[in-house]
Amino acid sequence: MNYSAFTSLILKLIGVVFILSSLLDYVTIIFPTNLESQSWKIATVAGIVDRGVVPLVGMAFILVGYFIDSLADTKTLKKSALNLKAPVYIISALLGLLFLLAVPFHLSNLNNAKADALERIEQGVGQGAEQIQQFLTQVDTLSQNPGRLNEQIQRLNQAIEAGQVQGRQLNAEQLETLRQQRQQLQGLRDLAQNPEEYKTRTDELKNQLETQLRERRRQAEGQATTQALKQSLRIGLSSLMLAIVYSVIGWIGLKSEISAPKGPKVPSRPKAK
């Protein structure tokens, strides 16, 4: 075997390993399937597209090997009985179709995932609004019951002085939390004695909590929209480019294989005069 034949063989072997390993990798990504999960479908398409260049490299090695064969001396180079070009072109055409179909499939999954995320955000906002209302109701109930408010302040004083709650020793952070709660209850007790100031302070607290809730909602919606846009651009454009490359290789390759002569032409014998 001469140097050209050896180089061609090595390149073809490397190309076959690249293609087979990538196809095996695709199988491990797809299985086990979970078609009911939007996150699984998004992650599966992203994983396949991210590895889409690997079989392309393998095909390049194989085709370069055949290009070296075409440059070699046909008299000294033995023609291989196994033609890898036709399978390569077929796999390339199939991958081109796969990546082309992956574009609308992935965009649809991203839109569904975004809609689910926005729905969860709306549910969270509703729960947050209920919690704010419950908190204000509890504050209003305490303010109208000075005796209960004084009892809670007294219990906090005892816990802070003893440094424990129900026989459990408190650390410095827990003691500071209790002091803050005592201060809040004391402030609430003082406010309850002035109805006008109490109403003003509770309205300010309600507006502050609602503003914080709206800000968290805006940030969550912006994050969901940005994430969906990034995924659609990165995976969608990458899949589209891979589809174009694989389709061109497959179409041109299969066309050349079909139009190629099947064997050497036998020269016709001259007619006897």
How would you describe what is shown here?
With 273 residues, this protein is mainly alpha-helical. The protein has 2 domains: 3-121 and 241-259, no CATH class; 122-221, no CATH class. The chain contains 7 helices and 2 strands, in the order αααααββαα. It has helices spanning 3-30, 38-50, 53-71, 85-143, 146-162, 172-192, 195-259, and strands at residues 164-165, 168-169. Strands 1-2 form a two-stranded antiparallel sheet. α5 (146-162) runs antiparallel to α6.
Helices, strands, pairings?
Layout: H1 3-30, H2 38-50, H3 53-71, H4 85-143, H5 146-162, E1 164-165, E2 168-169, H6 172-192, H7 195-259
Antiparallel strand pairs: 1-2
What is the helix tally?
7
How many domains in all? 2
- Helix share bin: over 70%
What is the total tally of β strands? 2
Give the spatial strand order of the biggest sheet.
1-2
Termini separation:
47 Å
Please state the overall shape, judged from the principal axes of the Cα atoms.
elongated
What structural class do the secondary elements suggest?
Answer: mainly alpha
Low-pLDDT residue intervals, each spanning 5 or more residues: 264-268
Mean pLDDT: 85
H and E order: HHHHHEEHH
Strand portion: under 5%
The largest β sheet comes out as:
2 strands, antiparallel
Cα-atom radius of gyration: 36 Å
